[in-house]
Known about the structure:
It is globular and about 55 Å long. The protein has a seven-stranded antiparallel β-sheet with strand order 4-3-2-1-5-7-6, sandwiched between helices. The chain is an alpha+beta fold. The longest helix is centred in the C-terminal third of the chain and has 24 residues, at 172-195. The chain has six helices and seven strands, in the order αββββαβαααββα.
Amino acid sequence: MLLGNVKKAVVRAAKDAEAMGLCKHRSGNFSALDRTTGLICLTPSGVDRRGMDESDIVVMDMMGRVVEAKEGRVPSSEYMMHIAAYETRPDVVAVAHTHSPYALVMAVMRKTIPPVMAEMMHLNLRAGHIPVTNYAKAGTKMLAESVESPLIISDAVLIANHGVLTVDDESVDEALLKAAYVEEAAMVYYRVLLIGEDVPEIPIDDI
């Protein structure tokens, strides 16, 4: 079995996302890039994370060709988005895609999230906010292309009407942590907006 330790890390992140409430009903997907081989370990399509193990993880190359997969397992339908993230950001080695509820509200509203809490400093918000993509149909090349420009200015992106994409240059666990920060920031921002007052923002230099 190829890249066993990398696969275990991807499975762990996928299960942790379920436990944290960042993904439900088999939504979302996770991957890690092995720098030595240039291969991607990606969660499969339509598999319940609660029973997933490393044998379920699909290995593919940067061209989208499957290198290793258990019988009956195919890569997530969002594999092109993962490849686009790695191509756009050669520094990153992990991608997390979640469907957390508050962040999804912001993504549906196409509303960027301003710097409202200190933890957002971990998201590398070069423009000072969490950006939102243009709308594109799930699983398409157009969706993959939609994340490219936002990823240049941020490690976290809201995917219009879809969810969250985060990247990290160390591990898939850190990419997942960034997705958790996005959800927390979205929840805080949502509740502040309900109060109906101006939103006090952290100075961009502080994040």
